[in-house]
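User: Hi! I'm working on a homework problem where we have to compare a predicted structure to a textbook description. Could you give me the structure for the chain below?
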Amino acid sequence: MKLDEFTASDGVIVGLRVANKAQALRELAKRGAKLAGVDEAVVQKALQEREQLGSTGIGRGVALPHARIPGLKRLVGAFARLQQPIEFEAIDQQPVDLLFLLLAPENTPRDQIAALARISRLFRDVGACEALRQAPTSEAIYAIVKAQPSA
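Assistant: Happy to help. Predicted structure tokens:
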């Protein structure tokens, strides 16, 4: 599975201005809902419920908010690079500046797990993370995402 199979170029946000985790999740919900063609409130609620189970901040400045969405027909991804890092309750207690949103249909847990694994591999690559942080435009970020090999 390649990241660009579920992440479109218009799903990349550069320099997102948010003050905290709640605001970041709201902004991602807004973008994800638009990309998925579903209700923003449904996405926001699902993301908040998932975060209550435990933070999706996976360390090294990265968070992977994700949720299953009723009625969603396909995986939908979005990437955001924050203008300033924020507290996200990450496992390493470090602030987060890179976020990859994944929305998944309720009935495709295998696809969701495969997509989460693929995104995690991207974020384990220190060079890729640095490139994502330094890329000047959303187009440059999308090129990095698109260039990632399939799992």
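For your comparison, note the following. Strands lie at 7-16, 57-59, 62-63, 66-69, 76-86, 96-105. The longest helix spans residues 21-36. Good luck with the assignment!
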